[in-house]
């Protein structure tokens, strides 16, 4: 299949959404936990989280345009805190179900059967069933002019990762955690590790690191 700009524009809307979302390949699957000042909890699955920097530890996330009610974004803006929780194979269906359009006063935690847990000084719930939990403090948001999506930038202020999955050099084996990847909008994958490669240098051939 070969498509130019005109052909892409002529695609059926649903086909185009799935097709274009497939092009970027495997993406991370995270549950974003938030809570408003009234104590109403919200949980939503996203596939747009990305590393932004290690020192300070920053993480980015792209959210849909704020043209309609967006509970997750509104809660983040209101409280300044949110959590990111890796989706694993054991909570896959519940995680996907959070994409349903529940009412603002309905907690996705309750609706899909996941358990909220709290951490002092972070006014957002974590997902107990996740094996890697990240507490994030909002740094800034930007509305991207190109399509009005929202760039959310946060500082990592808390990490809870299952024991035995962090190597001596800091590498986290997310495969051991059962973390899943997502492609397009609705297809999930259990990745298989090929191996870690050595630090690339011009005068040294790349090799697999023995573990």
What do these coordinates show?
With 211 residues, this protein is α+β, with helices and mostly antiparallel strands. The radius of gyration is 19 Å and the shape is globular. Strands 3-2-6-9-10-5-4 form a seven-stranded antiparallel sheet. A three-stranded antiparallel sheet has the order 1-11-12, with no helix packed on it. The protein is built from five helices and twelve strands. The chain has helices at residues 5-9, 13-23, 71-79, 92-97, 108-112; strands spanning 27-28, 30-35, 41-46, 49-54, 57-63, 81-86, 116-119, 122-127, 132-143, 150-161, 181-183, 187-189. 17% of the residues lie in helices and 35% in strands. The longest helix has 11 residues, at 13-23. It has one domain: Electron Transport, Fmn-binding Protein, Chain A (Pnp Oxidase, Chain A, Roll), CATH 2.30.110.10. Strand 7 (116-119) and strand 8 (122-127) form a beta hairpin. The mean pLDDT is 95.
Compact summary:
This protein is α+β, with helices and mostly antiparallel strands and 211 residues long. The chain has five helices and twelve strands.
CATH superfamily annotation:
Electron Transport, Fmn-binding Protein, Chain A
Unreliable residue runs: none
Query: What is the topology, as strand order, of the major beta sheet?
Result: 3-2-6-9-10-5-4
- How would you sum up the global shape? globular
Helical content stands at 10-25%
**Ends apart, CA distance between termini:** 41 Å
Overall SS class: alpha+beta
Sheet with the most strands, sense and barrel status: 7 strands, antiparallel
CATH architectural type: Roll
| Main CATH class | Mainly Beta
| N-to-C order of helices and strands | HHEEEEEHEHHEEEEEE
The beta-strand count equals: 12
- Count of the separate structural domains: 1
Strand content: 25-35%
